[in-house]
Amino acid sequence: MNTQEMTLEQIRTIGLEALVQALGPTGLIRFLQMFEQGRGDYTREREHILPTLSVTEIAEAIRLRRSI
């Protein structure tokens, strides 16, 4: 196999297939996650994403879910 003559997409595909063979699908995903740096500032963003609840409100939500 001459990688000099292969496209980047071909190299990527063969590489992913080799990782699946060696690690299995779950291992491949875990391997790829090591290289994902992510973006943004989650600490700042979560203030807009997550609701601001008191401990009492959280406990009440848990009680309601358990009673269903």
Summarize the structure.
By secondary structure, the chain is mostly helical. It contains three helices and no strands.
Explain how this protein is built:
There is one protein chain. The model has no long low-confidence stretch (mean pLDDT 90). By secondary structure, the protein is mainly α. The longest helix has 26 residues, at 8-33. It contains 3 helices and no strands. It has helices at residues 8-33, 42-49, 55-67.
Structural class category: mainly alpha
Query: What string gives the helices and strands in order?
Result: HHH
Distance between the termini: 60 Å
Strand percentage:
under 5%
Shape field:
elongated
Average pLDDT over all residues: 90
Number of beta-strand segments: 0
| Radius of gyration over C-alpha positions, nearest whole angstrom | 22 Å
- So how many helices? 3
Low-confidence blocks of residues = none
The largest β sheet comes out as: none
Helix coverage percent = 55-70%
